[in-house]
Amino acid sequence: MRLKISHRTEYRYDAPVQYALQRLRLVPRSGRTQTIHNWSLKVEGASEEARFVDHFENDTRLVSVASDATVIGIDAWGEVETFDTAGVFGEHKGFAPLWLFQQQTDLTEPGDGVRELAMSVGQGSELERLHQLMTTIGVRVAYTIGATHPGTTAEQALKQASGVCQDHAHIFAAAARLLGFPARYISGYLMLNETIDQAAGHAWAEAHVPGLGWVAFDPSNGISPDERYVRMAVGRDYRDAMPVSGIRLGPAEEQLAVSVTVEQ
């Protein structure tokens, strides 16, 4: 499937920004599940300082913001050909060792709820147990926009039984690690059947299965990702793979607007 994607992130300030440094993970890379035919990244109100591939193999750009900026606009767009591999991404590669993905983070640290969830997974093959985990999360944690925020932990979202794709991915990763699987967080895009315009990107998780390598699971939709999914960045959790992150100095108040379109 060939998908056309457009993603705009806009920051507006009520006073000039003294200084800001932002890390952008907004350039997808070709791999087993996708081929990037063309991709562009444009930043308004900031200058690129460096670009590199990080230890998770994410294309990363660092941009600094001029002292007189009141608007920072980041536009990413392009065309990607995707392939349905039944969720299988394949062997582990990159500088980050596999054992790193077995370690919990602040956002995935398990409490009693996540531990009980992991223990509830029944017997079966590795894939059967992971699919059961994915399905259980979708049933127990309702997809509810606005129910959580970027700092919500897996344990908190599970306890309140509501969240969004970020929370589902964190819960899956936390529980999968307890079950002995290295697990990681994926940020990207999903083509929806009912709409082109979206308010944000998408997120799901992967677990490393012996003999198969990384296999993707999307608890929000109850499936392993297919050709409607585009991978952008990878990490242990949202903070490692978030599209835009950084620091800002000064008293200016910030307003953020995000718009995404994904269409065939």
User: How many separate structural domains?
Assistant: 2
Major sheet description: 5 strands, antiparallel
Quaternary organization: single chain
- Name the poorly predicted regions: none
Structural class by sheet pairing and helices: alpha+beta
> What is the CATH fold-level name of the largest domain?
C8orf32 fold
Q: How are the strands ordered across the major sheet?
A: 3-6-1-16-11
Instruction: Count every beta strand, where a strand is a DSSP E run of 2 or more residues.
Output: 16
Mean pLDDT over the full residue set:
96
Secondary-structure element series: EEEEEEEHHEHEHEEEEEHEE
Q: How many DSSP H or I helices?
A: 5
Give the CATH class of the largest domain.
Alpha Beta
> How would you sum up the global shape?
globular
Helix content bin: 10-25%
